[in-house]
Design a protein that fits this description.
This protein has 171 residues and is of the alpha+beta class. The protein is built from three helices and ten strands; from the N terminus they run H-E-E-E-E-E-H-E-E-E-E-E-H.
């Protein structure tokens, strides 16, 4: 019994529908957080650990306003910086208990106090958008890209640039 041309076409269509096309698009892991009303992110490869923020913080006299103090992380001492001070953003209402992102870049290992951890996510590189000219001047040197997170714009920060400028005394 031979198949009619219509049956053959239907069989070909079923086969084509069953084919799965696997597109291997490069991705990036991001740590998304809030500072006040603004959303930011760091590349996950630069964040070694996320601490809950309940660690005992020790104040160090004579430090710039951008250094909140130091913490003991399993025997290692790490400074804790206030990112909103470095980025010249309005101070958060209470930034004493927010999570601490332990970052490592540009030869610097430090904690970064944030107001709220929003997500750790994998995102395709194609989701990153270029930085607009309308960005505030204080943020332009540090923002590498923009992305959308739950309908809100997120600035992807270049942690290496943040740490480099901080080490050079701009913080």
């Amino acid at each position: 019994m031979s198949n009619s041309p219509v049956d053959e076409l239907l069989a070909l269509k079923r086969e084509a529908a069953n084919e799965i096309v696997d597109v291997d698009e490069p991705g990036v892991k991001l740590v998304v957080f809030a500072l006040g009303e603004r959303y930011f992110a760091f590349r996950g490869k630069f964040i070694q650990e996320i601490l809950p923020g309940s660690e005992t913080l020790f104040y160090v006299p004579g430090m710039p306003a951008s250094i909140q103090g130091v913490i003991n992380v399993r025997g290692d001492i790490a400074s804790v910086i206030l990112l909103q001070e470095l980025l010249q953003l309005q101070a958060s209402r209470d930034n004493q208990q927010g999570p601490i992102l332990l970052g490592h870049a540009s030869g610097m290992h430090t904690g970064i106090r944030v107001d709220e951890l929003l997500d750790v996510m994998d995102l395709p590189m194609s989701s990153l958008k270029p930085v607009p000219d309308s960005l505030p001047e204080s943020l332009k040197p540090y923002v590498a890209a923009l992305l959308d997170f739950k309908g809100k714009a997120v600035a992807l920060l270049d942690i290496e640039k943040v740490f480099q400028d901080y080490q050079e005394g701009l913080g």
